């Protein structure tokens, strides 16, 4: 807000904490947080992300985006009649993971949401740094593979109907633009507000699909949610193509408020077109029974190579034990 006179909220007498230009509104703390919840509710309805009676597994990293997502879904779950369970994976990345775990536990305790905690150290006897060193694969690519498997396996064991991810507008659009520029159109098919479920695969939903990064940051701050402040030591710093595209999109948004949301909606509307080139896995892994395109899933292949044993089945039993010890409704 500019200096001088304090601007009032457009909806009440309280001082405004932000200006939402695309909605032509100045909003106070209360009305901003309500506004964001309403926007997420509209996205849930528009894209049919959740239905009454569903169990939704929310993957929380300890960071601000997934903290805001869990908070919003907890509020909306009462209104829409679905159940929320949180999942956190302790990746074993030193101090960062310790703090992320602490933030996730504090958040779930405050919101009274059941938390499934999976620790790579307990599960595999090694965290991401050790696994990455052994595999000679970039830490983030290995981490992505492990997280995808664990989140999906947890959702299958818990009989969740959807996995909610904290990806927001500014996460999605740069990848959409990048894949369009490279004409990797089927990749765009994965970047919509949701993916469908199958027998051994639980669909992902992105309720923050139309919420920007600055909005999730402000929401987390105004609701005083516990989050890990530092970044993962493996996260990319400096210039990346996605960062440059993000800056470009934000510069357009400044001149044309609402452009980013209109863009995201247009992609969602045509997502069927982008999905045409996608192939779906139809086999089940001979070790763990999860969906795969070959004979053995990527997680079992990786763990067999690094740890001498395909760990998928052990992971599924571990998740069953952990889930049984958490009070679910
Ligand atoms: Fe995993 Fe990379 Fe993200 Fe760190 S930055 S949590 S290693 S994907
Ligand atoms: Zn107000
Ligand atoms: Zn497997």
Automatic annotation (TrEMBL):
Gene3D superfamilies (UniProt xref): HUPs
GO biological process, one term: tRNA wobble position uridine thiolation
KW Nucleotide-binding (keyword) present: yes
Binding positions (Zn(2+) 2): 285, 288, 297, 300
Gene Ontology CC, one term: cytosolic tRNA wobble base thiouridylase complex
Annotated organism of origin: Ignisphaera aggregans
InterPro entries linked to this entry: Ncs6/Tuc1/Ctu1 (IPR000541), Rossmann-like_a/b/a_fold (IPR014729), TilS/TtcA_N (IPR011063), tRNA_thiolation_TtcA_Ctu1 (IPR035107), TtuA-like_LIM_N (IPR054306)
Binding locations of ATP: 59-61, 65, 89, 166, 171
Domain 2-thiouridine synthetase TtuA-like N-terminal LIM: 8-32
Origin: domain of life: Archaea
Keyword Metal-binding part of the UniProt annotation: yes
Name of protein: TIGR00269 family protein
Location of the tRNA(Ile)-lysidine/2-thiocytidine synthase N-terminal domain: 56-228
Record keywords: ATP-binding, Metal-binding, Nucleotide-binding, Transferase, Zinc
Signal sequence residues: none
């Amino acid at each position: 807000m500019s200096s001088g006179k304090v601007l009032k909220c457009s909806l009440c007498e309280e001082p405004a904490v932000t200006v939402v230009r695309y909605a032509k509104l100045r909003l106070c703390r209360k009305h901003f947080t309500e506004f964001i919840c309403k926007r997420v509710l509209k996205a849930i309805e528009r894209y049919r992300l959740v239905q009454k009676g569903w169990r939704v597994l929310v993957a929380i990293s300890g960071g601000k985006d997934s903290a805001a997502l869990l908070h919003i879904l907890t509020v909306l779950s009462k209104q829409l009649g679905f159940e929320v369970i949180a999942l956190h994976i302790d990746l074993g990345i030193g101090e960062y993971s310790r703090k992320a775990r602490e933030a996730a536990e504090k958040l779930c305790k405050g919101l009274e949401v059941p938390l499934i905690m999976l620790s790579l150290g307990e599960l595999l006897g090694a965290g991401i740094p050790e696994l990455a060193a052994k595999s000679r694969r970039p830490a983030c690519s290995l981490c992505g593979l492990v997280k995808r498997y664990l989140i999906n396996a947890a959702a299958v064991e818990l009989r969740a109907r959807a996995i909610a991810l904290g990806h927001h507008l500014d996460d999605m659009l740069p990848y959409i633009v990048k894949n369009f520029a490279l004409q990797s159109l089927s990749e765009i098919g994965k970047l919509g507000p949701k993916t469908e479920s199958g027998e051994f695969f639980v669909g992902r939903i992105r309720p923050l699909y139309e919420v920007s990064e600055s909005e999730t940051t402000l929401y987390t701050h105004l609701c005083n949610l516990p989050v890990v402040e530092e970044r993962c030591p493996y996260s990319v710093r400096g210039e990346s193509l996605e960062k440059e595209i993000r800056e470009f999109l934000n510069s357009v948004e400044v001149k044309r408020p609402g452009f980013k949301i209109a863009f995201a909606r247009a992609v969602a509307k045509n997502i069927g077109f982008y999905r045409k080139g996608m192939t779906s896995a139809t086999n089940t892994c001979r070790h763990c029974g999860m969906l795969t395109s070959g004979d053995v899933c990527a997680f079992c292949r990786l763990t067999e190579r690094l740890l001498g044993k395909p760990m998928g089945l052990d992971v599924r039993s571990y998740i069953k034990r952990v889930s049984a010890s958490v009070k679910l409704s």
